[in-house]
């Protein structure tokens, strides 16, 4: 019941997330130093008809978790081409499961791509590349946006002689405890599904094999009443041509009832469609170390089921069909460390064809010409003919983990693997993974090739600021290796950089900050402050080691061209403000001194001009009006005495405002006129307070504590209360309206014109709220969230956001990586111009590729696309297309909307992106 409840909770949470519209960026870039390559792992190798080697591996890139990396090198180990393919899922955790190379030297990769919410495997994908590395097709079984997401627990695929693929999988239903429905597909050479049917196969365990477009399964079922096991054999050619029967052979049942089905069961099919099953029981019972060999004839009956002698102990390695159409089992005889080849003779007796003494096999691989490999250690590979004659012994350099190997001829093979090294010298762990390829003969390594993918990074702290010319500067701190998430490991050194992008997200430059600087974003609970001068020079007050309790600050100037210039040593500062003439830095008393201080510095040189002490007052805000600078301070003595707010003008105290003891002044905001709006929360009178620079004071009583407040540009005030209620007040604190109730927490507010963006930290939701407090748009971010560090409106009103992707990307449980990103979204007005909606049939619409640089294909299951109308984000109609393929080559990059009208007059609206 607990498992079922978990499934329901996950399903509801997934539905809630995907019921929101995705907040998609107009354009996006990622950043990082690309020196972490922990997911460069080898999987499969092939040698084509021209003796080129094709390596199927994985790598990391940008915001993706793991991508498929296909590499082709020629006979001399020169790179011919390399192709990285990523599935557009919210996690993009792509793992190859099988691969093939056909007679036309085309490469197929079949794998799984996990979503954030995948429970086991994820989305099935199939990639086909031609001989030149061009993608013929890249398809998924299901939608990459997870709108029809179902996981699966079993999948198999086989390449047919005509280049088509036969595939079977069983989807997991979220609301079902049974995993009985199996989907059978045939995919043609263009990536189209040309045949599909579903068959119910009850099972509590299954193994299978595909051969000549026929699916063979051995299944195990558990009786819920007496817990007895039954075994069934299934042979399925198509929807109308199927056979199945229950296995009742006593020898088979006696053996398998002690062991059950597992991945250790080996299946083979001979040229006459006879089906062979071999299994080595590993459980601690009477059958341990014994191998059962079973044959099911083409007439769908058990021809024999026999078990090795009880006096011998075996380990099964694999099985194959030899040139005489006999089923051969490759086994280790553990009693005397002998490699043996077993088969069943005409009298149904197990015989040994050949023995290789003092040899213990660790692996097996059969070649297309009938020869086969036996591995006896990580570095030792032995080639045998189909007649069991040993041909050649090969030894790798033994410097990497052996993953796969392919035969070139009887004297030469290629091997692939993964090597491990340290990412940084002081690391305790070998987490730098590289792909290794060697060409070897019987005596030496002839050639080698080592490579890594582009890599990823651990950009763990980011901030975006925008200069006077609408360029975006990203302040980022990055770990130069994997962070250790356990206890006792060594963390890597840090790199601190500033990256500058123009408004089209073209990188202009990046520059490294000196090593003596502690942080670029926040230090000791304080945001690190900055300002731009009229010439677009960036000034940063950065923490370093110093004599003020071990801490000091320095003012740095970063020119518009990315040159870093040291200006002067400055001060520890809670608050930082720059006007036309001065830099003002304020620090509260309780941190380092017995009095709060404000320092007035020359704006150009950073030299101290004046220092003002204000006792035990805490600074609230520094601001400038005209040529005068002001600051508010706050003093709370005890909970039983009044609190005080003070206003200073040009360093001189102007007034004191006494308040009832109110348990703090937060949140608060100061408008462009210097008026202070602040919340007090002493029950029962919770208030929004207003205090201007002339000591005029008023307040509004609220029903509950204020958790957030923000002004619209017209002066109205938005309040978010502890009870999830929202209010809108005018500038005189009169109630205008009760806004929408919002069941959210950990909010952050940003204002743009007549709208407020309300973001939440943990569920990545953004709500756009209008003047009346109504939510007019509810958006979902795949990554990132609203915060002053991470989000800004640029000079044109576009939302700019930085952050990290990866969902704590990890190699093992102890390590984590994440890639930095910068997204540019449209303006709020453009987001609200067109109401994008879906009909009830939205799950059947497929757009690909999206984003696109030119051609966009539209597919709707069981529907004919009659008309497609293209709109811009302002709602202007741009063009009408009368087919399901539209060409966007003549349109500029950006977001567009299409209205799809089917022949049956269904109307579906979709958002698309033109690169």
Q: What does the model show?
A:
This protein has four helices and 75 strands. The two termini are 48 Å apart. The strands form 19 sheets. A five-stranded mixed β-sheet has the order 1-65-64-63-62. The longest helix is centred in the first third of the chain and has 17 residues, at 2-18. Mean pLDDT is 87; it is low at 1-19, 807-813 and 835-843. Residues 847-913 form the Secretion system C-terminal sorting domain. It comes from Winogradskyella marina.
- Order of strands, main sheet, comes to 1-65-64-63-62
Principal-axes geometry comes out as elongated
Per DSSP, the total helix count is 4
What's the overall average pLDDT, rounded? 87
Low-confidence stretches: 1-19, 807-813, 835-843
Oligomer: single chain
Radius of gyration based on Cα positions = 34 Å
Key descriptive features of the protein:
mainly beta; 915 residues; single chain; 4 helices; 53% strand; five-stranded mixed beta sheet
Break the fold down into its secondary structure elements and pairings.
Elements: H1 2-18, E1 21-22, E2 27-31, E3 41-47, E4 53-61, E5 64-73, E6 79-85, E7 93-101, E8 107-114, E9 123-129, E10 135-141, E11 152-159, E12 165-171, E13 181-187, E14 193-200, E15 206-211, E16 214-222, E17 229-238, E18 241-247, H2 250-256, E19 266-269, E20 275-280, E21 291-296, E22 302-307, E23 314-321, E24 327-333, E25 338-344, E26 350-356, E27 363-366, E28 372-375, E29 380-384, E30 390-395, E31 401-409, E32 412-421, E33 432-440, E34 445-451, E35 458-466, E36 472-479, E37 483-484, E38 494-501, E39 507-512, E40 522-523, E41 526-527, E42 530-532, E43 538-548, E44 551-558, E45 564-569, E46 575-578, E47 582-587, H3 589-592, E48 597-602, E49 608-613, E50 618-625, E51 628-636, E52 643-649, E53 652-659, E54 668-670, E55 676-680, E56 686-691, E57 697-702, E58 706-711, E59 717-721, E60 726-729, E61 735-738, E62 747-752, E63 755-760, E64 765-769, E65 775-780, E66 791-793, E67 798-809, E68 815-827, H4 828-833, E69 845-848, E70 855-860, E71 865-871, E72 877-881, E73 885-887, E74 894-902, E75 907-914
Parallel strand pairs: 1-65
Antiparallel strand pairs: 2-68, 3-4, 4-5, 5-6, 7-8, 8-9, 9-10, 11-12, 12-13, 13-14, 15-16, 16-17, 17-18, 19-20, 20-21, 21-22, 23-24, 24-25, 25-26, 27-28, 28-29, 29-30, 31-32, 32-33, 33-34, 35-36, 36-38, 37-68, 38-39, 40-41, 42-43, 43-44, 44-45, 46-47, 47-48, 48-49, 50-51, 51-52, 52-53, 54-55, ...
